[in-house]
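Suppose a classmate hands you a notebook page containing two proteins, each written out with its sequence and a corresponding row of structure tokens. How would you begin to make sense of it? This section walks through that situation. The first entry is reproduced here exactly as it would appear on such a page.
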Amino acid sequence: MLRSRIALSLFSALVALVALTGCEQATGQPQASGPQAVPVGVITLKSQALTLKKELPGRINAFQIAEIRPQVSGIVQSRLFTEGKRVEKGESLYQINPDTFKAQLAVSEAAVASAQASIASSKSKATRFKELLKIQAVSQLDFDEADAAYKQALAALLTAKAQLQTAQINLDYSHVSSPISGQISKSSVTVGALVSANQSTALATVTQLDPIYVDLTQSSNELTRLKKALATGALTVDAANQTDVELTMEDGSVYPHKGTLQFSEVTVDPSTGSVTLRAQFPNPENFLLPGMYARASIVEGVVSDAILVPQRGVSRNSKGEPTAMVVNKDNKVESRVLQVDRTIGSNWLVTNGIKAGEKLIIEGLQKIRPGSAVAPEEAESTLHSTTNKAQ
């Protein structure tokens, strides 16, 4: 009986405790409701002046090429150069047997002497007949014939001198010389070979390698877009660096000397739809050789208020459009569709869809969606470059 009373008392106390606890919960402070703000890493976008560069493919071409051909016919008497070595402008390369040309020169010199002697005789006769004509000692016909003979002698002298000059030129041409300075190729003839004036086969080729040209190709669409950007003011000309060109070699190394943009073609190649730009580079070490492939960076212009967005903060929607998440003034997430121009390093150059001063989310993207409440915290920014190469 005593045990039953004790058990009943304990049960009553437990019921009272439960009731009291429920009452306290009903009358206590209400608990917080709704989702908690998600912490995200953001960067505050800033505009900056950006020098845009474009990388173009190209081929290296010689500055000058001279194919050595004989201008007179004859037997090659000697070769005066070492194959593969440098030769200077005016340096003798071959000697063609000059005996025939020396003989022709001697004949022409004799013809000049004969013409000069004939002039002296005819001039004296014409002068004498002129005085005799005054006293009518000779007829007018005799004087006219003497004067004509004198003038014919003068013309004969001019002809003889021209033939002498031609003979001297042919003798000089027997010494085949280089018209330019450069590196000479192997010889296509040996001593004793018969060569002909203006033959189609070159005796050798001299190539000037310093300076040297790099011919670049740019699509006509890119050129048109660039001209429109300059015309509308979206790009401005960088006068200090507009003609500077930087060259990247086939192995990925950067060529140590900078080049200068020379000109751009005014016509489009119909087979490729591209135009050619020519740059000139110093080549004192002869690193660059004709036919080599290279890539060159040229300056397109300057964007005064460029917006760069890290690629890790940009994704694609179902339409393939680039999108980004930003934090609005209410600390809510907004999705933006962007218009991008190109990649620059690890960033996108954005032309529309976002502006300076907005907070771009780059960390915690997997935990949010548009409309989510967030707690933004500044993340490390890598947007510090002002001169960039377009990809």
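The notebook's second entry, a different protein, reads as follows.
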Amino acid sequence: MRIVGFVGPSGTGKSYRALWVAKERGIEYIIDDGLLISGNKIISGKSAKRESTKIGSVKTALFTDVIHANEVKKVIAKIKPGGILILGTSDGMVEKIAKTLEIGDVKEKVYIDQVASEFEIKEALSCRKNQGKHVIPVPNFEIKQDFSGFMVDPLQIFRRKGKGHFQHVGEKTVVRPTFSYLGKYTISDYTIYQLINHVASRLLGIKKISKYRLTNRGEGLYIDVDVVMYMGSSVYKTLQQLQNESKNEIERLTSLNVLVMNVTARSIVFK
């Protein structure tokens, strides 16, 4: 197995350029911040960006958890890739990851200043320092389920195809991990209720919400809502509209994933 290290200080743009570096060297698999990635898919692992502290993030990136490491090792043994690109902040980090995952020695290394200009590196460092932005080299839909409650934005990548013409070549994801903030980012259960109530107030068939229950299981929300409806309105159509519009609004405004939303009509009244 061909093992190549991609080395550069934190925040210099390694994850942003990882797919290009791998493609130029004919490598299909990347290890970045605890994840095994191929193309635009996460194959195995867990993201260090989910950790609440920088120390926890480093530990995840180094596969210090035995269960995490064994999961990735089993997948690598099964797929038998011809090569893997390992991202790290130092020579020692990429070598330690290769040793932990038992995939052989790092025979070749690429450094960030070989693939990015001094100006580009300074811009990336400024973005990391001032905005706390981190890039994961997979599309938004690949990580959304695992990043409930995190600020997640798609990053469209284009390639110049002549003057004034660009070709869309893929999508990466920008995340703002908890450890990038000077404090804790939380959303109260009552805020979620207010969003659902706002949607309900716009629907002519619903008089009020009579009961509301919410459970946040980390990966996303489980919501149960009981409503009082007006006689003569279409029960199924109205409940489906409340369900869909509430889910869309919650995910759009809070970045929390709504995994389950049960809506029940408990009673009907005359106007």
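A careful reader of the second entry would note: The two ends are 72 Å apart (CA to CA).
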